[in-house]
Amino acid sequence: MLITLCGAAFLEGIDIAMFNVALPVIRGDLGLETTQLQWILSGYVVAYGGFMILGGRVGDRFGRRRVFLIALSVFIVFSMAGGFAEDGWMLVVARFATGIAAAFMMPAGLSIITTGFAEGSARNRAVLIYAGIGAAGFSLGLVAGGLLTAIGWRWVFFAPVVLGALILVGALTLIPRDTTERDRSPFDAIGAVALTAGIVMTVLAVEQASHGAWPIVIAATMGAIIALVAFGVRQRTAAVPIIPSAFLRSRALLRAYLGAGSLAAGFMGFQFIVVLYLQELRGFTALQTALAMVVMAIDAVLAPTVTPRLVARFGTWPVAIGGLMFAALSYLLFLPVGPDWTYALMFPSFLALGLAFTFAYGPLTIAATDGIADRDQGLTSGILYTFFQFGAAIGLAVTSAVLTIAVNAGSEPLGAYRAALWVPLALAVLGIITAVAGRPRRRVS
Predict the structure, then answer these.
(1) Where do transmembrane segments lie in this chain (predicted)?
(2) In angstroms, rounded to a whole number, what is the distance separating the alpha carbons of residues 145 and 286?
């Protein structure tokens, strides 16, 4: 069961990474305009980030195995559709649909693990393996994307179909039917719609801000405010609100969610600058860039082997805080980047970022799920992934904005990169401060 669910996490990570590498080739082959290319990216980000909490809650209510299987099937179908696409709008639809599918699949997969293993060392080890394989999927996906794009960009869509089909076969036979008692209380559909609309609009506003699409940003912001206010009102009036009030009052959960968001925010901003530096300033190819950064996949080896021992000895939060410190160290080491840096000078920064995910991502996942009643495991998983995705969107948007401001102010490329690198460093420090603040409470149920 764990191998199958890790395969799904790997599939989601590798899919995102491969697609990002293939975008320039897709644009040239289909003759896409910049707006179309932007919406191919935005469609997935908005759908994935916007539907995550709803996806987690639906799994809690209607069966995690059932939701996982349906979502994986939809993911496979629309990945195949993207491979056969002949126009930009087809790719937009395909990526939006796969984003929604991933938003239902990922919380369901994580909650199957957290309810299938006894709380304690067994669950912690399972979660750390799951988190490490998922993160490794993204790192290895950069390399796989470069290789498959060299063969033909459509294989970036077809490869997930093959992998997804294998996972689906394994899931049908290896994932047991739901045995935990499902929540039978009335489902707050109005609150679910309002919350999902608010998150979708918020993610859209942040994501579009990185592209300078200000009319869309303003409209999405207004829509988000209206939807989230409506959700807040509904939370007070619904007999059974979509998010129990205990989740909103828990300092421990907020620390876990915000820590994950800051980790993703810093990583996305840092990766954005590093890719520009390597490809535009140093002339690296997409494959060379991916190979240069592949050391970050070290968490696939260390997260299942070393991190569980550290968590058992020192506790979840000390290890997580250590991971966030490695993230700050990574960005700090890259800050003085020069025009002719050798790979030996870059390597410590990439290695430190791999160690950051090794020691932070899994323990933060444990912190977000530990002590939560089985009936709410999908919900907390959905909230965690939402913060991670939202953090990534914010990190990319702010880093891109600072880079643009620096360039418009007359900075040469290297100076602009250095200015923008302060953003992920600041976000990492903010994550550390958030993680060390307050004392976590044991249970929210």
Answers:
(1) 37-55, 67-85, 91-115, 127-149, 155-175, 187-206, 212-233, 254-278, 284-302, 314-335, 341-362, 383-407, 419-438
(2) 9
Residues paired with 444 in a beta bridge = 372
**According to the model, what pLDDT value does residue 141 have?**
79
The total of other beta-carbon atoms located within 10 Å of residue 376's CB is 22
**CA geometry: angle at 317 spanning 370 and 444, to 5°?**
30
Distance from C-alpha of 180 to C-alpha of 100, rounded to nearest angstrom = 25
pLDDT at 314: 92
- Name the nearest CA neighbour of 20 among 187, 166, 138: 138
The predicted pLDDT at position 211 comes to 66
| Domain boundaries defined on the chain | 2-176+242-436, 192-241
Instruction: Give dist(CA 320, CA 60) in Å, integer.
Output: 27
Q: How far is CA 161 from its chain centroid? A: 20
Domain 2-176+242-436 part of CATH 1.20.1250.20: yes
Structure confidence at residue 182 (pLDDT): 59
Rounded to two decimals, what is the model's pTM?
A: 0.85
The string of DSSP codes covering 184-201 is -SPP-HHHHHHHHHHHHH
Count the residues in the chain: 445
User: Which residue ranges in the chain fall short of pLDDT 70?
Assistant: 34-35, 38, 179-186, 210-212, 438-445
What angle separates helix 64-83 from helix 2-30, to the nearest 10 degrees?
Answer: 20
- What amino acid is encoded at 7 in this protein? G
The span from the CA of 439 to the CA of 135, in Å, is 28
pLDDT of 49:
81
